[in-house]
Amino acid sequence: MDLRIFTEPQQGASYDDLLRVARLAEDAGYDGFFRSDHYLAMGGVDGLPGPTDAWTALAGLARETSRVRLGTLMTASTFRLPGPMAVTVAQVDQMSGGRVELGLGTGWYEAEHRAYGVPFPPLGQRFDRLAEQLEIITGLWSAPPGRPFDYHGEHYRIADSPALPKPVQDRIPVLLGGKGARRTPALAARFATEFNLPFIDIDTAAARFERVAAACAEIGRKPDEVVRSAALVACVGRDDAEVARRARAIGREPGELRANGLAGTPAEVTDRIGQWQERTGITRLYLQILDLADLDHVEFIAEEILDAV
């Protein structure tokens, strides 16, 4: 089981905060350091000192880490045009020596679009645009050197593109996710190297993973080619008192986190991870760390759980 750290810096974190956690994640042995791609805080917090741009931050982290995988859960396709997005991610992949992964979704948080002047089309159109973006981004990366890339869709047109720069990796992993019953699994079957489900119960997750497997089978792709992963809030302590203290620090209740996340003592959380693995077939977990000042938490999980799973 791969364990990765997942952060939500729009809730209040500077680049230096992210760098401290990313370096600790690397040193502690985690497989990856991922971040959300949002421009507005949620849940009533002020978000100070303000949002950091996801790909600007990842570019910096690419130069200041050496091993850990880096990426987004999830970049909103509404934020960036597909051609420049392909250029940006390929460049950060070069800067990292081939450690970048792109999580891409339709975008869902309408308030942040209003707050920063980003158009927010209806959901059906956002899905249409996402499908075209995936065609263009993966097409630009994989186009043979020296052969121009063209694409003519309803929302985007690419003409005579040199399809540069190329990423270091032969194929940058593309992460998709979401709750859709039809279009989401179909897109995952066509484009995803990983399908991620965030903040969901085990039984629902198992059913949604099977939808993706069925969609893969329909187009002749082996379902096991798509990595299954989940993202869950982490709140781990040596005893109940420490779990409660960490839950209070993020404004949550220990009982609710035990039911819906990865909360409790190391033994409890290790057992919970085993349940997820057995019932859903996941091989990767993103541990959402909401208190980025609590570096001991990140280190404690590594020491007590990483080797056990």
Could you give the topology of this structure?
Blueprint (H helix, E strand, L loop, with lengths): L1 E6 L7 H14 L3 E4 L18 H11 L4 E4 L2 E2 L5 H15 L3 E6 L4 H6 L7 H20 L6 E4 L4 E5 L12 E4 L5 H9 L2 E5 L3 H17 L8 E10 L3 H10 L4 H7 L1 E3 L1 H15 L3 E6 L5 H12 L3
Helix pairs in contact: 1-11, 2-3, 3-5, 6-7, 7-10
Q: Average pLDDT across residues?
A: 97
Radius of gyration: 19 Å
What is the helix/strand order? Answer: EHEHEEHEHHEEEHEHEHHEHEH
How many domains make up the 3D coordinates? 1
Detail the poorly predicted runs.
none
CATH class bucket: Alpha Beta
CATH superfamily, by name, is: Luciferase-like domain
Q: How big a fraction of the residues is strand?
A: 15-25%
Distance between the termini: 6 Å
Q: What CATH architecture would you give?
A: Alpha-Beta Barrel
Helix fraction bin? 40-55%
The best one-word shape is globular
Q: Record the strand order, biggest sheet.
A: 1-2-3-5-8-9-10-12
What is the SS-derived class?
Answer: alpha/beta
Question: What does the largest sheet look like?
Answer: 8 strands, parallel, barrel
The helix count comes to 11
Number of strands: 12
